[in-house]
């Protein structure tokens, strides 16, 4: 097995490509040279919820693929019948971590994601500002300022509340340590294909409050009680307060996340990839 940013033209038995649009040229080249060899395409959030609707190259990748990989179960809804027939779900995974020691004085929230519009960090910071200033809650924001304009807006909002803490970009290990010491992960994204950070939280015993989008629902279920309308900072603030003040609600969030943990283990992902390879050999 070899990992490349672009296909080098090597005599490979099969291709597994990440991104229908970004890998479109490599997919087309491989399929042209080896039309009888299998091509599996992993569909990300921007693929499923944007590119395959409007981008001709992404659409061509779907046609050329012999297998399509979705990262969560609601992705099926975005595919035609023909594409759905060659699709399967493979959940990504993370090594389980024991929950960290959490503050007894503060109720800590984690917001993890580089500052770009799709992640909608403004909603999380606006929710913090809607919580009474005497409420002992802190928001730790991990991620680099990829969009300077958005980062400036987030910084201006955060400066209004000393409970907001921007930590910048951290290593994956440091990020996971921060997450596991928090009481909740906030996931206000506008678009997700199957968020790694959700997996990292759930496998650390940290429940999630997230935007009610297909990419989130497909990870924890449409009836998970921690969803809020996209961009609704008021509703997110209400859910944070409920999690702080209602032990039964917090326990329900924790239990529902724990019920899904087995989907996000390395063993489960490995078995799914092996199944993909076996099905591909049979084509």
Offer a concise description of the structure.
It is built from 12 helices and 10 strands. The protein is an alpha/beta fold and 283 residues long.
Structural features, described:
There is one protein chain. The chain is α/β, with parallel strands linked by helices and 283 residues long. It folds into two domains: 15-91 and 265-281, no CATH class; 107-263, Rossmann fold. Helices cover 42% and strands 15% of the residues. α2 (45-54) crosses α3 (56-64) and α5 (121-130) crosses α10. The longest helix has 16 residues, at 266-281.
Show the helix and strand layout.
Elements: E1 15-18, H1 24-33, E2 39-42, H2 45-54, H3 56-64, E3 67-70, H4 81-84, E4 87-89, E5 107-112, H5 121-130, E6 137-142, H6 148-158, E7 164-168, H7 172-180, E8 184-187, H8 196-202, E9 208-211, H9 214-220, E10 227-228, H10 233-245, H11 247-258, H12 266-281
Parallel strand pairs: 1-2, 2-3, 3-4, 5-6, 5-8, 6-7, 8-9, 9-10
Helix pairs in contact: 1-3, 2-3, 5-6, 5-10, 10-11
Q: CATH top level of the largest domain?
A: Alpha Beta
What is the total domain count? 2
Query: What is the count of DSSP helices, taking H or I runs of 4+ residues?
Result: 12
- The name of the CATH architecture of the largest domain is 3-Layer(aba) Sandwich
Tell me the span between the first and last alpha carbons.
19 Å
Q: Give me the CATH superfamily of the largest domain.
A: Glycogen Phosphorylase B
Helix content: 40-55%
What CATH calls the topology of the largest domain is: Rossmann fold
What coarse outline follows from CA principal-axis ratios? elongated
SS strand fraction: 5-15%
Q: Regions with pLDDT < 50 over 5+ consecutive residues?
A: none
What number is the mean pLDDT?
94
The biggest beta sheet reads: 6 strands, parallel
Radius of gyration: 20 Å
The counted number of beta strands is 10
Strand order of the largest sheet: 7-6-5-8-9-10
Encode the helix/strand succession as letters: EHEHHEHEEHEHEHEHEHEHHH
Please state the structural category.
Answer: alpha/beta
